[in-house]
Amino acid sequence: MRYFFKQSEIVYYVILLLVLVSWTNVNSLPPLIFRLMYLSAVVVPLWINRNKFTPEILFAFVIISGSSFAVSYMPVDGMYISIVLLFTYIFSRPYVDRLQMPASFVILALLALFVDLFNFENTIFSYKLFAVILASLFISKSDEDTLKFVTITIILISLVLGLEFITMGNKFISSVSTIDGELERKGWTDPNYFGAVIGYGVIASFISLLEWPNMKKRLKWGIYGTLVISLYAILITASRGVFVAIATSLGIFFLFGSVRFGKKVLFLLIGGLIVLLFYQLGFFDLILLRFQSDSGDAGGRIIIWEARLKAFFNDCNILQQLFGVGFHQSRYLGTPKLLGSHNDYIAILTSYGFVGLIALFSIFLYPIRKAKEYKSYVLIAILYMITCMFSIEPFTSGHWSCYYFYLYILLLSQYRSSNK
């Protein structure tokens, strides 16, 4: 990190990070004045120094706060973040070879805004999409430092949340259905969403180790440590969807990715040793029981999907099928109470219709079409993301971690180095 910041700046933001994770009250937020003061402490020094990494640092603090066991001092509301990014743009006016957002992303943001306004619903989803578009104005697609820093922040987020899980997870035990009955697992939130955030760091760690093998030894060992901590957290939360997403994306990458055979063998050996160690320590026991179980939330998801799709195609008129029924109203389709779809594709289809679903598909196809140098990395990241979205809805639910990881994918797809 010294490569990007002065030592005093690193110490300052480490202290802010420690303050962020110090709030442990899960029943209430800190007073608003303290939250605004904390937000100012994060962004004002960046404004003063016209720091080019302002959105990356902002996203890191927001994601850690929003994914932790207690939403802490850092505000995570879409309107707050949009306002901060707008002021950042006004104060900094960065002149960079900025990241290009797909037109489909803008179309989906506008569609969500108009559909939700028309149905008199909350427009928080569109606010967040516009915030992501605004953040892209600060991110340079031709600066290797930016690519490295975004990669490091995603890894750091995974490390911090993984360490929080290890130290605090025992205080938040929940039951889970398996073929052996109800068993307990650690965790303070939906393990699938939490595991997905950790998984972003796993993917970024693999990419960094493959792309920059000559990094400093301390940093390299730190990334290896992050991998171990992150994989442990994913296994203990017993998130089947995230486990499948990581295994699938990494498996296809090592089979078909454009990486030298020697590197593939090295990483397969390291991965095999980690798997063997975890197996001997019994870390796979709970997740294996989850895969063998015929009960639990997997069957419940299928019931929700069938009921929601049936209601969408049978009860909605042609305009609603084209443009959706809105974010809030879609949660009642096919169910007597407010209930999520547990599938981003179904959530987008019912909320914003076939137009929204086509826009979503285009959003993910865009970086694949644009990718040149890092096409293999883009494919592994996209595959992980779209696989996770089959069992959860981080995109539609407005998870900052999902949007930040997508910006990372765009950066990988558009980056062009001078020596390649």
From TrEMBL:
InterPro entries: O-antigen_ligase-rel_domated, WaaL-like. Signal peptide: none annotated. Keywords: Ligase, Membrane, Transmembrane, Transmembrane helix. One of its GO terms (molecular function) is ligase activity. It is found in: Membrane. GO terms for cellular component: membrane. This is O-Antigen ligase. The lineage of its organism: Bacteria, Pseudomonadati, Bacteroidota, Bacteroidia, Bacteroidales.
